[in-house]
Design brief:
The complex is a heterodimer.
Chain A (H helix, E strand, L loop, with lengths): L2 E7 L9 H5 L4 E3 L5 E3 L10 H9 L6 E7 L3
Antiparallel strand pairs in A: 1-4, 2-3
Chain B lengths: L9 H4 L5 H5 L2 H10 L2 E4 L5 E4 L2 H9 L4 E2 L25 H8 L5 H22 L4 E3 H6 L1 H11 L6 H17 L1 H24 L5 H7 L1 E2 L2 E2 L2 H15 L1 H16 L1 H9 L4 H11 L4 E6 L3 E3 L2 E3 L4 E5 H4 L34 H18 L3 E3 L4 E2 L7 E3 L1 E4 L1
Parallel strand pairs in B: 2-10
Antiparallel strand pairs in B: 1-2, 3-7, 4-14, 5-6, 7-10, 8-9, 11-14, 12-13
Helix pairs in contact in B: 6-8, 6-17, 8-9, 9-10, 10-11, 10-12, 13-17, 15-17
The chains are: A alpha+beta, B alpha+beta.
Amino acid sequence: MPKTLKVRVDPEKCQGHNRCKAVAPDLFVLDEYGNAREVGDGSVPPGQEEKAYLAKSNCPEFAVEVIEEHGEQ
Amino acid sequence: MTARPPVNDWATDWDHLDPQWINDPFPIWDEMRRTCPIAHTERFMGVYFPSRYEDVRAISYDTEHFSSRRVVVRETPPPRIPAPPITSDPPEHRPARMVLLPPFTPDAMKKLEPRARALCNELIDKFIARGACDAAVEYAQEIPARLIAHMMDLPETDGDLYRKWIKMILEDGITDVSVAVQAAGEMQHYFMGPVHERDEKPGDDLISYLNKVEFKGQKLSAENVIGSLRLLLIAGIDTTWSGIGSCIWHLARTPEDRRRLIAEPSLMPTAIEEFLRAFAPVTMAREVVKETQINGCTFKPGQMVLLSFPAACRDPDMFPDADKVIIDRKENRHAAFGLGIHRCVGSNLARMEMTVAVEEFLKRIPEFNLAGEVTWSEGTVRGPRKLPLRFA
């Protein structure tokens, strides 16, 4: 069964450190204050999985989650 | 600085102005983490010192018991030098912070980057032929001072004045509060003219931006504008100066890292984050406003907490091999810019300045080493203040 990844930024925890955007620029966008959110529904395109986990493990506020979804095919 | 009474015991009598702490605080913090992770001193009218990441983090998030109204530990009762939002607590904190964020986003910093690169090269031009320099005095300290002046559209040559005020507030003012108050007054006077001028003839600069910016329909008061400018000057100069200086100090002593960065320039962002962790320059403070307990230690109201992000960043429970500088460290949730609502507003500026400063230096001067005694700042911000180098 294929595994799909999604990233999610908890807006209550994000303080705008900008680490996720720096390590995974395609997965996150910043608002005018520099706070991050995931692009679209957070789906991680193939090949970007490692970057998703890097974004998580470099967030000082523990605001980035990586969710593994076991989709049906 | 007059001689201070020697420290009897780091757990109960610590002193961050002690020469041993100033020159090499890391072994002291390691010892504290093992034996007394929340230390206390009667000096400075009573201050706690948490040395573990976990406790620094807990206090950063706890704005109910720990107030930011005093963010510098001093020996005598504090002067009131408001510099919102760094000295603000909720709920006043949020609006004061929100207005400062847009000029410091990563995109805004990209626009500033060409000026930063040119500036670094102008500085290098002045000393490269000599084959030697003091990288703290002739390079690191000039970059943030000139760049913040550039952002405010003030003379870039006013940097000497800025550094004088910063020293008065953050170093000399620890033991003599009147010096800090005097500096705050001089800064008020310095900014008053430009703030009024830009009110009438706005430009594309930070002062004009602060004059006109609104949050929820409210403009900032003139006092608030000047307070914010004072904060940006105080917080934006010796911090990044220290950060840049520490990077170059490390690279002067570690040829293998220097050569690897030249060979693999894509490693630079990861390396800069590691330098930020290992040599985090900024220590903040909080005032205990309500009694509370953290990890079995009671915090008494009226006492201060020295909130050492640098110590947190060296905690081996959070960072494996915390005492090693690993320029390709993959996981790095460092706290160099603080944690929680007071995350450094200028973090993107500081990162850009550090990156550009190191890149341009390595491009022009790939081989260099230490050529004399290095001295370190004392107090709230840690970094080299004398950094003599010889180029190979």
